[in-house]
Amino acid sequence: MSALAELSTLPKHRRLVNTVTRHAVSLGGAAAIGAIALIFFYLLWVVAPILAPASIEHAQSYDIDGERALLLEANESGEIGLRFSAAGDALFFDLQDGNKLSELNLAESARSVKRAYPGGATYAVLTGDHQLALFEASYPVSFEGDRRVVKPSLQAVFEDWVDLGEVRDFDVAYDDFEVTIVSLEENTLTVTHYRDAEAGYPLEFPRRGEISLDRSYQRVLLGARATWVYLLAEDGTVEIFDLRRKTAPKQIYLGKLVPDGSAVTALEPLLGRYSLLVGDDSNNIAQWFLIRGEFGYTMEHIRDFALDAPATRIVPEPRRKGFAAVDAQGTAYLMYTTSQQTLAKKELGSAGLVTSSIAPRSDLLLTSNAGGTINAFALHNEHPEISWSALWSKVWYEGYPEPVFSWQSSSADNDFEAKFSLMPLLFGTLKAAFYAMVFAVPIAIMGAIYTAYFMAPSMRRVVKPGIEIMAALPTVILGFLAGLWLAPLIEANLAAVLSMFVILPAAVLLTAVVWIRLPSRLTQRLEGWYGLLIMPVIALAVGASFWLGPLVETSLFGGNARAWFLDVLGLGYDQRNALVVGLAMGLAVIPHIFAVAEDAIYGVPTHLVNGSLALGATPWQTLARVVILTASPGIFSAVMLGLGRAVGETMIVLMATGNTPVMDLNIFQGMRTFAANIAVELPESEVNSTHYRILFLAALVLFVITFVFNTAAEVVRHRLRVRYGNL
Amino acid sequence: MLKERQTSVRSWLASGEPWVWANAAAVGISVVAVAGLLLLIAIRGLAHFWPAEVRLINFTDQFGQAQVAMGELADMESLTPQRYAEVFGSSDPQTEIVQRWLLKTGNRRYSPPDFQWLFERDVSSIEYPEHAVVLERMEWGNAYGFLVSVYDGDRQVTSGDLWAAFQQRLERARDIRLQIEELEQGTLNRINYQLERLRLERRSLEFAGESASHLAPEEADLNADYLVSESQLRDLYTSLQRDNIELRLASGRVVTTNLAEVVRAWRPNRMSLADKLGHYMSSIWLFLSEQPREANTEGGIFPAIFGTVMMVLLMSVLVTPFGVIAAIYLREYAHQGPFVRLIRIAVNNLAGVPSIVYGVFGLGFFVYFIGGNLDQLFFPEALPAPTFGTPGLLWASLTLALLTVPVVVVSTEEGLTRIPRAIREGSLALGATKAETLFRVILPMASPSILTGVILAVARAAGEVAPLMLVGVVKLAPTLPVDGNFPFVHLERKFMHLGFHIYDVGFQSPNVDAARPLVYATALLLVLIIVVLNLTAIMLRNRLENRYRGVES
Questions:
Q1: Is residue B237 part of a domain?
Q2: CA neighbours within 13 Å on the CB side: how many for A419?
Q3: Beta-sheet strands, E only, within A337-418
Q4: Same domain, B187 and B324
Q5: I need a surface site. Which of A314, A569, B416, B477 has the fewest CB within 10 A?
Q6: Backbone φ/ψ region at A368: left (φ over 0), alpha (ψ -120 to 50), beta
């Protein structure tokens, strides 16, 4: 037709309008596909970086003055380096060009410099003559005209030096006006503790605890929050003392961290100092942490990381539970504990490292060799926390007695180990959907059968729009009623609600029995109105359930249903639980299943029905053996659509569950679903962080699940339409 | 006999009669459940505004002391011995079932708590004192008591009717409050807005390296205006706080309340039915027209209504052309082949994608990606404070437009299908081009079904909350998205929404008990809007169904 119109001699502008309209409309049609593709690819684009590999690249070398470095450090922004040297100097240098910025002499000579626990820019310097002091680096930013200038400075935290004596090793914690110094001598461990240590004033009134040791150790390390201390020997022996009473250390554990015959080649604590990373001469790095069990504390061997050669150096990341390792052949590795993976590997090409560190943002690795040359390596390692096993398998998190599935994305602590297991969320999603479907599928399909096949046309004209309005009810209202009205109601009348599941069907059956006794002249004409007739019965049955509730509770559940479930079946009760969600979300899903199933049943060609009836089948036999069978693909597709709804529903689960990510099949416990989790956490998540991308991944998973369900439903429905057409 | 019975049972089962009843029950349950829920919302929502009687209850407390409490009856409950034991730790020896009442005693800040449980058996007498006064306060909820005296400044009002004197001064305070509001929302708001605009203009000139000195005089003028208005405002506030009343509480304590703190006052036990109806209507009006107070748990929901309407309007403007064009393509232009099937599947999938996924997409794509880039390009002077790179009205509307496209497409397509082929062919035969047929014949004929689609889309969008939580809704928006400042409609602003209001007040508010009636009222409003919209759409569609039947035959 359009070809005809174009052939004719139309005025130019009419032809133009016609062509433009055609193209515009086609564009609009393509936009529908464009939109769905855009959503999918955008989600994928955000998620993709968590799959990107990490890398280590050599960035720069600095030859400053050849002095031997004791400790290297980069500031927060990665612009300025700080080097403590054996000559007792502290030097700030520009990480862009290696230029000296400022230098400060702290002492005649320095023996050792350590970062004070728990991090930040505080350093403990031990001089050649056993004096110890704390220094804090700061990097104030100012503007000279438009130019941003950072003027680094280093200042003593307290006014005086502390004499440690002839020590093998020491460690320092400085936090919340408390300083704890542990020092190790030949056969003695000394704890020095200062309370009310205020910066800028002298350190006063030390309290000392001392304990003599049976063995000889080389290293001393404070544990988390300075509440315990590790003593470590080269053969892997570890002894742990409880430091909660600083003046009286108490031994809580003695054991070995490497197999007999092996030796420790490198050992560092992981961020937070709950875990120790132990490298031994069998090319292995093992993670160990302390667990409090029934019979006291034990060090548990958690996981291993394989290297090509024995590790000589382990460098923990300052903000994450990851670390870099360098082996005896000079190869560097980036590894991450939670996800148990080696992310990147690189030949450093410089041997004899004396110190190394990772910048606060984990984007820079600084190393220094014996000759004083400093090398900087750029690290690209944005999302090390994620691996297949971290998302979907049980993971042994720090402080847990065993590997678990856990979702806990954030906490107030800085040294928190994020737990990104998607299993509890997947479980919660399926649990909520399952209970909703258990409730919704029978009601929706049976309702559809009755409406399509038996119901009087005049009633159908009212019921169908009624169900449509039910579909339009905002889920926020259903959720609000479920959370604030239904949940307390069920909690207070649990027995009544449970007895409803028996009383209601019984009442319906009773109605059927009574009905058959009535004169058939009356009953036959009313078959189409059963749906209406049954309503008062339902209302009565519900009322009876509540009336009988206390009786049922007394006779069956010993007077208190919730206590009975806990005591007898071991089922704990949450006020907002899967039963509430099942009922509320079921109600939200029913109209969606109903609409599609009703269409499918109603659309079964009448000659099939008439044929069956003509052969002598009763209407019910016709329905059960012909109609439902023919319509079954349509019913299946209705269930798929309903499942898609239930999986993605947000507000009801958000409001009617406690949103606790537990994995428990118990119908009286809550859950957290993907959708609710996104709604709760995405607004507070930092853009482009791992957490943000995982939430997008959750959205992508939801998208894909519903896409599959919907497409399957659509394909089935299409084939059904074709079949109806052929019949 | 028995055998006959058995066969009759079997034939009864075979006839499927019990199954038919079971199926009928399924319909019945759905309808009863929905109707019950709607009824529940309606009753609770509407009851909230009724001026309930104030009871003065004398009772003995658990220590045997005589006590008195005054307030409105909020709830009643019967406790079984087991429940009693659960709540109080030991069972009550005397009775089987114990009745208890929840009394809303209000008077927060004077005598907490504001709700009190009383056992019926402890009550010795109930009175309905005629002079009991209910004060609706700006803060702290209602107060219940008896009016003792009225102070005009420092001077006690002695002459005449005390209540009338109180009402008169309340009227005056209300007028002043209106003036304050006008000044704050009008003049001061305008001055602040212009000062902010000047600040941004200055920054953007500085970025460009140009002098911004010519802005100084205007700035000085505005600052001077500001000072004038500010002193006016201070005077108004002082004058607002002039009057006080003294209120005697049920406990006998006398408290002084400043009239600036009182919104309304009434004496429910003296009111006639007509008075109560009047009060009821004015309560509903205040609920619909006022700003929320007390972390949204009191006052009105006007900003939420306004925000919902704005968002929905903007969404309709965006979704209508897109949905209609897609439907026209599917029905009128495309060759019915695999590509069209693909589009159909895409549209169906769009309808089935969970709404929260749209929210995630909207936040990532519209807000951070498009919005962030718009800010870089057009609003660099405001950075790092985002203009469009943060959730807001525009992004929320766009997200919901995307979400409701399938609704419009499906409805429009249905309408297009119903237009008989003969009409199209007639138009073409008369020499019209395809485009002309479309614009002059088909679209006008399909317009009711397009309208149906848009109405359904609006109903869907009005009730949707999950995606909005990510792309622009807030619990309390300081300003409406429309005001007197150029360009009048501020698409970048955050807004309030009825559905989110329900979630927020019901689940995030500190005093859920006090807020619950308000949530029911809000829910009722939202349900009403959505049911009315849906019914309109259904009626429109039913009318269309038979419209072209004559043409076809």
A1: yes
A2: 19
A3: 341-347, 353-358, 364-369, 374-380, 407-408
A4: no
A5: A569
A6: beta
Q: What is the pLDDT of residue B547?
A: 65
User: For chain B, what is the domain count?
Assistant: 3
Final residue of a domain: which of A113, A130, A157? A157
CATH number at residue A442: 1.10.3720.10
CB proximity B73 to A under 8 Å: no
For residue A415, give the DSSP letter.
Answer: T
CB contact under 8 A, A696 and B356: no
* Beta pairing partners, B127: B56
> CB distance from B442 to chain A under 8 Å?
no
- Say if residue B377 is in the same domain as residue B503: yes
Which of A157, A185, A216 is the C-terminal boundary of a domain?
A157
A-chain residues near B80 (CB < 8 A): 550, 553
Residue that terminates a domain, selected from B93, B126, B145: B145
The answer to whether residues B355 and B460 touch, using CB atoms and an 8 Å cutoff, is no
pLDDT at A3 over 60: no
> pLDDT (tens digit, 9 = 90+) per residue, A137-188?
999 888 876 778 888 989 888 888 888 888 889 999 988 788 999 999 888 8
Q: What is the pLDDT of residues A87-144, one digit of tens each?
A: 888 999 988 888 888 888 888 888 899 998 887 789 999 988 888 989 999 998 888 7
What the block records as the tokens of A281 is 């001469």
Residue A366 falls within a domain, yes or no?
no
Whether residue B462 is contained in a domain is answered as yes
* Partner residues linked to A208 by β-bridges: A192
Residues of A in contact with B436 (CB under 8 A): 14, 17-18
| Position A630 pLDDT exceeds 60 | yes
Same-domain check for residues B351 and B215: no
Q: Which residues of A touch B434 (CB under 8 A)?
A: 1-2, 5, 18, 21-22
* pLDDT given for residue A575 in this prediction: 83
Full domain range(s) for residue B61: 55-145
B27: closest CA among A57, A444, A552?
Answer: A444
C-beta atoms of B22 and A533 within 8 A: no
| Structure confidence at residue A5 (pLDDT) | 46
Q: Is residue B529 part of a domain?
A: yes
Question: What DSSP state is assigned to residue B390?
Answer: S
| Of A240, A243, A237, A272, the residue nearest A255 (C-alpha) | A237
Shared domain check, B80 and B109 = yes
The structure's pTM equals: 0.88
For residue B541, the domain's CATH number is 1.10.3720.10
Residues 65-104 of A with CB under 8 A from B: none
Determine what percent of chain A falls in helix, strand and coil, rounding each to the nearest 5.
Answer: 40, 25, 30
Sign of the Cα torsion B400, B403, B405, B407 reads: negative
pLDDT at A432 over 90: yes
* Average pLDDT per block of 10 residues along chain B, 553 residues long: 61 76 90 90 89 88 84 81 70 67 84 81 86 86 87 80 87 89 84 84 79 81 87 88 86 86 87 91 90 81 91 92 90 84 82 91 92 84 77 91 91 87 90 88 88 89 91 82 77 88 85 81 92 88 68 50
Structural domain span for residue A649: 423-489+573-724
Q: Which residues contact B508 (CB under 8 A, 6 or more apart)?
A: B475
Question: E strands, B427-481, where?
Answer: none
| Contact assessment for residue A48 and residue A700, using Cβ atoms and an 8 Å cutoff | no
Domain boundary among B94, B112, B145: B145
Backbone phi, then psi, for A562, in 5-degree steps? -65, -40
User: For B379, which DSSP code?
Assistant: -
Residues B174, B128: one domain? no
A575 at B interface, C-beta within 8 A: no
> In whole angstroms, what separates CA A188 from the centre of its chain?
45
Q: Which residues pair with A104 in a beta bridge?
A: A90
Strands A219-222 vs A207-212: parallel, antiparallel or unpaired: unpaired
